[in-house]
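Dig into what follows:

_____
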Amino acid sequence: MGKKKILVIDDEEIVRISCKRVLETGGYDVVVASSGPMALRFIETAPYDLVITDLMMPEMDGFELLTVIREKWPYLQVVVMTGYVTDETKLKSVELGATFFLKKPFLPEQLLAAASSANNALSDY
């Protein structure tokens, strides 16, 4: 089996670059998108094993993106990341079907652990 393919969505370039670098060193094939609509175009044209998305983005926030992903690709694992953590954002993320929740800023090890755990959840299907 080849490398697991991860799509990272964040409106901040530095976050996309950092996540891509960390995940690639962990052995993943990583594609980045700067918005929810761009991410949906990518998901519609190629299969992904995992999506890691920011919550607070212009155009389409992470909650909207997660809702569309759950409707169209119910088995796609999604990790939500945000710097604006509240009990409400955590609860809403889980209710919408997020597999994991990462609080920004996070350590490279935390990102790799979330990706690994989410990918291990795939074996349940």
